[in-house]
Amino acid sequence: MDVHVVSKANNEQHTSFTLPRTSSLILGLRPFSIRVRTVFVSLTSNNLGYARGGHFLHWWDAYPVPNTSPPPYNDDSSWGIVPAWGYAVVIESTTQIPQGTVIWGFWPTSTVPVHLKLKAAEPRGQWIEISEHRQRLMHLYNRYIELPRPPVSILSLDFGKDELETMAWNALFRGVWEGSYLLNQYVFSPNPDIQPPIHPLGMGMSWTASDADLSSAILVSLSASGKTARSFAYHVSHRPSSAGPLGLLQVTSSPSPIAEAAEAFKSAYPTRTIAYSEISESLDWMVSLRASKMVVLDFGSRDTALDHLLESTKNHPVLQSSKIVIIQVGNQQKVYTNEEMFAAREAMSRLGKVQYNTSGVQDTVMQSVGAESYFSTLNPLWNQWLRDRPRSIPDLQIEWGQGISGTGGIEGGWKRLCQGQVNADEGLVYRM
Questions:
Q1: Which InterPro entries match (predicted)?
Q2: What CA dihedral angle connects 328, 330, 335 and 340, to 10 degrees?
Q3: Which pLDDT does position 265 carry in this prediction?
Q4: Claim to verify: residue 293 and residue 342 sit in the same structural domain
Q5: Please, are residues 353 and 326 in contact by the beta-carbon 8 Å criterion?
Q6: How far is CA 324 from CA 67, 236, 365, in A?
Q7: Has residue 300 been placed in a domain?
């Protein structure tokens, strides 16, 4: 059984090690619990965020390093397991969930079986993790969903080719796609009279219909080739023309496939897709839209891209009068130094950025409409995206890895993420 661990002080420092199989089976299974083993997970830039914010947002708490780990990795004040989205299989259960059930959720980058203490949730087939050590984790990361399929053999874990591919796309995109859906549908509500807009953080904070209004706005998507940005562009393309925006400017290091996807979905507004170096050349196009507001969605742009955009608009005789709203959605694919973290916090305050939080918005929505209604609306839209996927992300290919250790496993993928080497057309998925 292999475990991947990351230094909490320096996320670029990481390693893997092997534990004997008996080490996870010493303790009996508690009531209302399942023992599971990770089957598939994806690695994206979000995983770097889970490590970077692991202390403050308690992602390190999800799966503590096993106390049977060899020194120094048994010191959980210094080393941690970064969780990832994907699937696990139930190998033992004291709940209504049978052995062999495949479950979607937030799993350890480890093949060591882990225990989850669960309570049933709505809709049927969904569960909430209630272990004491996970109570400070945001609700989104404690929700687990059974797959509506027959149990698998826990020895063979056989999946059909088509099912395997669908599971891979779920692991890669389901979480970020849902975050983008909430951003489009609830933060920038197309029908504020029917669905009052929700602040990007949720939490009952003030976010008015005027804040959410895109009917007189241009949207600027920075790092438009990222998975969250691609998902957001897909959702926005389905908005009614009366809801806006007046136009979408997508700024990316890979303009061609992003422009191809925009062309595939004929939205009610003009779209322009450019390289980072072309921001200044696009100002006249932005002026032609006659927008009074610019909403900048930073999905994890390069270091100077936002500053360049703001400086260019500030110095433009027409655009300088536009109201500018900046939503911070993601971060760059890299390990941030302490100095860079401090600079990012300073920029949030100086520029008046508004942080987006998927879990906070999802909580607010489900408190309003209920989980049953929320997922009955969400799931058909997700299935439609899966059918639209070849047009929505025409260039992106799944890159399969195997296991934990080595360049072909989680260890190699983490190294590539830390060094910013995972390209926009790659989706890293690992079979454990």
A1: DUF2855
A2: -10
A3: 86
A4: yes
A5: yes
A6: 50, 19, 26
A7: yes
* Nearest one of 109, 103, 82, 105 to 91, comparing CA atoms: 103
Residues 408 and 429: their CA atoms lie apart, in Å, by 11
Tell me if 400 sits within 8 A of 312, measured CB to CB: no
**What's the pLDDT tens digit per position in 321-350?**
999 999 999 999 999 988 989 989 999 999
Q: Identify whether 370 is part of a domain.
A: no
What is the 3-state secondary structure of 231-279? HHHHHHCCCCHHHCCCEEEEEECCHHHHHHHHHHCCCCCCEEEEEHHHC
Residue 93 is which amino acid? S
Burial class, 206, CB count within 10 angstroms (exposed 0-12 / middle 13-18 / buried 19+)? exposed
**Dihedral angle sign, alpha carbons of residues 60, 65, 70, 75:** positive
Strand partners of residue 145: 104, 126
| Cis ω for the linkage preceding 123 (within 30 of 0) | yes
The alpha carbon of 190 is separated from its chain's Cα centroid by a whole number of angstroms, namely 23
Which pLDDT score, from 0 to 100, does residue 155 have? 75
Average pLDDT, the chain: 94
Q: What is the dihedral of CA 83, 85, 87, 89, to 10 degrees?
A: 20
Quickly count: other Cβ atoms within 10 Å of residue 326's Cβ. 20
Spatial contact of 356 and 327, defined as CB atoms under 8 Å apart: yes
CA proximity to 167, closest of 180, 158, 154: 158
Q: Give the end-to-end CA distance of the chain in Å, rounded to a whole number.
A: 10
Q: How confident is the model at residue 22 (pLDDT cuts 50, 70, 90)?
A: low
Domain that holds residue 346: 176-362
Q: Is 156 helix (H, G, I), strand (E, B) or coil?
A: coil
Token pair in block for residue 321: 């009068």
Q: What does the block give as tokens for 250?
A: 């997508």
d(CA 156, CA 138): 34
Distance CA 192, CA 213 (A): 9
Q: Decide: 424 and 29 in contact? Cβ < 8 Å.
A: no
Q: Which of 350, 427, 431, 412 is nearest to 169 (CA)?
A: 427
Q: Are residues 105 and 247 in the same domain?
A: no
How far is the C-alpha of 117 from the C-alpha of 115, rounded, in Å? Answer: 7
The closest of 271, 170, 302 to 227, measured between CA atoms, is 170
pTM for the model stands at 0.95
